[in-house]
Amino acid sequence: MEPKHPHDRREGWELFRQLNRYMNEQFAPQDEVLASIRRSMEENGLPSISVSPATGKLLTMLVAISGAKNVLEIGALGGYSGVCLARGLGPDGMLTSLELVADYARLAKQNLEKAGFGGQVVYMVGPALESLEELVAQGSRFDFFFIDADKENYVHYLDYCLRLANPGAIIAADNTMAGSGIGTPRALGRRGEIMRQFNETVARHPALDALFLPIGDGVTVARVKAAKEER
């Protein structure tokens, strides 16, 4: 099969962007709570890299559909995805959110409190791998995971998610398309290659059922199999 011409790839990428705009506008219009979080991030100098509105809607739906009671978020930023995750929880559900930067965690906590979820979220500040090791030592267990942090450690985060997962838990990871890099990893250099390898790991993992969804910048979703399903 001949590789696509760069012009063809650009056309395909533009079509993908149009489809995502349609999804955002028709299925996930941004409400005032989420819009205010984006404004707070801009005012506080945080990077504008929150999940897309459609991705946020997907997270809410996945948490709600799965009936998750304990959710772990790796990468809080300003709290946009945290609110989306918390919206899927019932009143007795809890969100544990890991964030490297203390100022980001403080802003995220403020935004979750304003959204009415202050009593349902706990923040752990510091390197995520250290926080994950602490959670393992505590014997913590989770029903839902959302990975949206430094891409170089995605595979390591996946390993920890599996160690912390209840059977049937859902693992979702953002930015797994890496722009237009999937299928042509050299187009985006190292990041594209990292995401390609991560997706291959998830797709082939014997403990996971997985699928890639072309929403936002790509979301890879997997379900942790029960032990009997792995045989």
From TrEMBL:
Keyword Transport: no
Keywords from the named record: Methyltransferase, Transferase
GO biological process terms, semicolon-separated: methylation
Pfam families in UniProt: Methyltransf_3 (PF01596)
PROSITE patterns: SAM_OMT_I (PS51682)
Keyword Transferase: yes
PANTHER family named among the record's database cross-references: CAFFEOYL-COA O-METHYLTRANSFERASE 3-RELATED, O-METHYLTRANSFERASE-RELATED
Name of this protein: Methyltransferase
